[in-house]
Design brief:
TIM Barrel; Thrombin, subunit H; globular; single chain; six-stranded antiparallel sheet; 14 helices; alpha/beta; 597 residues
Length: 597
């Protein structure tokens, strides 16, 4: 059977444990340094604790070391990798190909499995094949790929594990090929310090300086939601399904992980004998997961079925949440909402006043009559309301909301000089004089043996022969139970060892080879390059988003190109529409004086 893996984010130890408890088969977490989210680093001690917890369920822990590395940092990275290997981390995600030589230095085969981060720009079969030949076991594919493109990669490189994003925030640029934050704010996205250039407001200008759009979030994408497409992704060869969000809080991780875990379970149940979960354990939830009731900027399926309309959210980069109705009435300090949603004190609601997103807190809710903390300006009858903070959901998720247990069966038998208890493949025995029971003991024996408490196990059955009529003190039953549980916990799951790494050439030609296989149109950005070099390379196309892609049936533009994006401070960035690659590039500002400088 093919193992399917739900991969959840871990901002820290707490969220990592929550992800495992709510159904994740693996979690990814940032190392103390060198992760693509610099604000989400974790200590070696916390990563080790997460490994111990996850491995109880045969769940895995992947650590991100996926930034570009400076020359004077290589020795620090070498020491970090040795530390990660010593605490039984299951895989390391990398972007910088020079790290291959460091893996070889640790051991060959390395105790660490190599995953190619999406920051390495993995969008073609040629790139994925190159990665496999250089020792990678898994490629985290670019978010922009369609189901058909993933199928092609799997057909051409079937030996490589394919990981795909299924939920969360979207970068507008191909990951690893965005240099806008570095250029504009000296915070490199390839060093884990993205300043969110794509979430900013821009004017859109044509070649004559005419303003086509004014101060809108033209590059800010909605959030990815492929919950309705998991089956299709499985069928074309993807086996790991990744939730974005290493900066998200624990309530987000709980809700989204539980939602996708249930979807995977349903798919597996509908295809008996074909698939299984990659880890062990059944989850019981104290809440109903709902993707609409957690942080989101509105949802898009992005390119899963090729280019689609309405990928962006021009009016706000913030979470708007679930639509909860329209304003029916305004009365004094309160408003009445028409709709079926239930409200509680503390809910956060928002609405659009023209193109501006405004919000307010519900101080008191009496049915659908709401009393805001401050009556919002610009609110009118008929205005659509969205719930950006679902207080009832947040309260629910702040409590213990899931229990994960591994089902086990036990069997108890008498031996010549005592008793033996088996649980799974483990067994424990005690020496005990046989004493015939004067009263029935079966119920007490079962009760004592199944008291598994805070262990990760729950007993589904205890097999005791029908003629078993012995008295065993409860204290001895407890000893048997503890012994067999300890033996089960010390049994190591069988894992495939990492493949030996090929000899690393360590030359510029090999690194260039990896870039050439990436499918990118140009070499990495360098400060001081000419204005034709892209700061961002995007499959998302603003011309298409505005309805002016003539190749796809859009209207004929009434402007003269090139088009420019302009920040509020006057800096302009030329847009290049590379229709041959169906790609939009955001270019360096012009260096020819004026506001472009």
């Amino acid at each position: 059977m093919i193992p399917l893996e739900l991969l959840a984010p871990a901002k820290n130890l707490q969220t990592g444990i929550a992800a495992i408890d709510h159904g994740a088969d693996a979690v990814y977490i940032g190392a103390p340094r060198f992760g693509a989210r610099a604000a989400a680093g974790n200590s070696i001690e916390d990563i080790e604790a997460l490994c111990r917890y996850a491995h109880q369920f045969d769940a895995r822990v992947f650590v991100t070391v996926n930034t570009l590395i400076y020359d004077d940092e290589l020795e620090d990275v070498r020491q970090l990798l040795r530390q990660l290997a010593s605490i039984s981390v299951d895989a390391v995600l990398v972007q910088d190909m020079r790290l291959l030589s460091l893996f070889s230095d640790i051991a060959n085969p390395s105790p660490l499995t190599l995953h190619a981060s999406t920051q390495a720009d993995n969008r073609t079969a040629e790139k994925v094949e190159w990665l496999f030949q250089h020792g990678f076991r898994r490629a985290v594919l670019a978010r922009e790929l369609s189901v058909e493109e993933i199928a092609v990669i799997h057909r051409q490189v079937p030996q490589m594990e394919l990981e795909v994003f299924v939920h969360g925030a979207l970068c507008v640029s191909y990951s690893g090929l965005c240099y806008a934050s570095e250029h504009c704010f000296h915070r490199s996205a390839n060093r884990g310090e993205c300043a969110q250039f794509c979430r900013m407001k821009f004017d859109l200008l044509d070649a004559d300086g005419r303003e086509l759009e004014h101060q809108r979030h033209l590059l800010s994408l909605k959030d990815l939601n492929l919950s309705a497409h998991l089956g299709r992704l499985i069928e074309v060869g993807a086996t790991s399904f990744k939730i974005e969000g290493r900066l998200k809080d624990v309530s987000y991780v709980k809700n989204v992980t539980a939602a996708y875990s249930q979807l995977l379970d349903r798919y597996i149940a509908a295809h008996p004998g074909q698939y299984r979960r990659a880890s062990r354990g059944r989850c019981r939830y104290a809440f109903e997961p709902d993707l609409d009731r957690t942080f989101n900027r509105g949802y898009t399926t992005y390119f899963v079925d090729g280019r689609q309309p309405a990928m962006a959210s021009f009016d706000t980069p913030k979470a708007i949440g679930q639509c909860v109705g329209r304003v029916k009435e305004l009365r004094g300090p309160s408003l009445v909402v028409a709709g079926t949603a239930a409200f509680v004190n503390g809910d956060g609601l928002c609405y659009f006043d023209g193109r501006e997103l405004r919000g307010f807190r519900v101080n008191r809710a009496e049915g659908n009559r709401l009393f805001p903390q401050t009556m919002p300006a610009g609110l009118a009858v008929g205005t659509l309301l969205y719930r950006s903070n679902d207080e009832a959901m947040e309260r629910m998720l702040s409590r213990p909301t899931a229990v994960r247990k591994i089902p086990v069966a036990m069997s108890l038998r008498a031996t010549a000089d005592g008793f033996v208890l088996r649980m799974g493949e483990a067994e424990a025995s005690i020496r005990q004089e046989h004493q015939e029971a004067r009263t029935p003991q079966r119920e007490n024996i079962i009760r004592q043996l199944t008291r598994l408490g805070d262990t990760p196990y729950e007993c589904t059955s205890v097999d005791i022969p029908a003629d078993f009529n012995y008295f065993i003190p409860s204290s001895q039953l407890a000893v048997l139970r503890r012994m067999v549980v300890e033996k089960v916990q010390t049994q190591q799951p069988q894992q495939t060892l990492p493949r030996p790494l090929p000899e690393w050439r360590g030359d510029d030609a090999s690194v260039a080879e990896s870039r050439g296989a990436s499918g990118s149109c140009s070499p990495p950005y360098r400060e001081g390059a000419g204005e034709s070099h892209p700061l961002m390379q995007c499959r998302y196309c603003l011309r298409h988003e505005l309805g002016f892609c003539e190749r796809r049936g859009g209207r004929k533009p009434q402007w003269r190109e090139p088009l420019f994006l302009r920040l509020a401070d006057g800096r302009r960035f030329r847009l290049q529409f590379d229709c041959g690659h169906c790609q939009m590039n955001v270019l360096l500002p012009s260096m020819q004086g004026g506001a472009d400088a």
